[in-house]
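help with this:

***
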Amino acid sequence: MKARLTSIQIDRAKVYPPNLAIIAVIGLCLLTVGCATSGYTGYRTIERPPQRVGPVSESFIEYSSLTGEHFPTEGAPFLKVILKKRLEAQVRYEARTYQERIYKKQRSKIEANLLPLSCVAGMSLFFGEPYSDYALPAAGIAFLLVPPPDPKYSYTYVHGSEDVIVTYRDEVITVPAPEEVLIAKGTDTVTTNQNGAARFHVIPSQCDSGVVVAHPESGTSYLVKRVLKERKITKDWVETAQLLNNLVGSAVTIAKLTNMASAGAGTEVMVLTVIVDAITGVVIDFVIEKLGTSTEQYYAWLIIVRT
């Protein structure tokens, strides 16, 4: 007698056909092997920044104003001046170049989707039959949404491809003016050297009224003169003392300055401390500035163009 199978036994015995979605996804992943394309695509030229070689032609524009390099002192009683000129020049530039071969590697869109496609197949196998029917549509959506990857390039140097690109630029340049005659005090004649420099013996006191240096070629003369001036010198500790007084008051300032003096800050601080301590109540800023500043005389040098 044949045994009767229950419905549960029939369900368990049912054999499902292979899931086409999973097979399609796995097959698509396998097809990605070898889908990348690569190969030689051409040359590219690499050009280094152009380097300035130098002028190839020049035309004179004008002489620049005379400048001073050394002014007379008691220990070195001479005047040294520099003469330069401006030129319109055609300047040569050279740019070194070479070539490289370009190789391009382009991955396919299928290969770019390898990870999401593999994930879809893996999820279908993990969650089972109820979810596997969605694998193929999900794989299709992922394939459509993910853009193709950017190609990768590699380069190889081409031996013997070195070249030089030559260009010319019009520039205004300033250069020393050699072999130019300069006359100082109407009598002393000196010719400039290759650096455009000329040196005259001049006593410093002569420059109080001014020494005339003439350039016959340009018809220009210059008055070299010194002017006595004064400037204020503030000692290093003044700013510290003023800041202390503004922040903490005169009593604490006196104590701080005393500590500075005992630590070797200087005799000026010692004097300041004694005076402030003796006349407490007087505007301390005034005392600080008075004791901490002095004046000195110096000479300012002028080179005046005479027409």
Q: What stands out?
A: Residues 280 and 286 are 13 Å apart (CA to CA). The first strand starts at residue 37 and ends at 47. DSSP finds ten helices and 13 strands in the chain.
